[in-house]
Specification:
Strand 1 and strand 2 form a beta hairpin. The chain has helices at residues 3-38, 77-85, 161-164; strands at 45-48, 56-61, 70-73, 95-101, 106-110, 113-116, 119-123, 140-142, 147-151, 167-168, 172-181. Helices cover 27% and strands 30% of the residues.
Length: 182
């Protein structure tokens, strides 16, 4: 007769363990859903299929990017809206660009030329591939402490700071490290 209560105790104990596991898994799941819904999760891997950088798979690395580094950056809202309106890319997709100038560097425009540190870094186009006029950022100034200037790898056709100007450095999600490119 003593065996029967032992069996009941073991069954009861197993049910409590299962219930605890279910509660832990549910709590973790709800936490992840909440983070995804209200947080700004950053990607770890990025596939690039655009002409802004070599097609391929990139890892998003931490640390401060340097001039010339490829970065993943959230465009300012007006830039994202224009890019989406013209079907360059969806409004919620970050840009992949090279850091062409950092805070404190001089960036000037002269006609169609973008001049960084006294050297022509790129030229601007008047229209996009659909013959729509492109906005031109026009200035000659030292970048502020929290600004960066971006250029695409395809300097002829990239939608970058030539057209929308410097972007806040805080918009940089991370430095991109190529894992596999074509």
């Amino acid at each position: 007769m003593s065996r029967r209560p032992t069996i009941r105790l073991i069954g009861s104990h197993l049910r409590r363990i299962r219930a605890r596991k279910t509660i832990v898994v549910a709590t973790i799941g709800l936490g992840l859903i909440g983070f995804a819904a209200f947080g700004k999760p950053s990607p770890w891997l990025v596939w690039n299929a655009s002409a802004s950088a070599p097609v391929g798979l990139y890892r998003v690395a931490s640390g401060s990017p340097a001039r010339g580094d490829l970065v993943l950056v959230r465009p300012p809202r007006p830039v994202a809206d224009l890019a989406a309106e013209r079907f360059y890319l969806p409004s919620n997709v970050p840009l992949i660009k090279r850091l062409a100038a950092l805070p404190g560097e001089h960036v000037c425009t002269f006609g169609d030329a973008i001049i960084i540190g006294g050297e022509i870094a790129a030229r601007r186009l008047a229209t996009d591939t659909q013959h729509r006029p492109l906005p031109w950022w026009n200035a000659c100034r030292k970048l502020a402490a929290a600004e960066v200037f971006l250029l695409g790898s395809d300097k002829d056709r990239s939608f970058d700071s030539r057209y929308f100007g410097p972007v806040p450095a805080e918009n940089i999600i991370g430095r991109l490290v190529p894992l596999w490119t074509e």
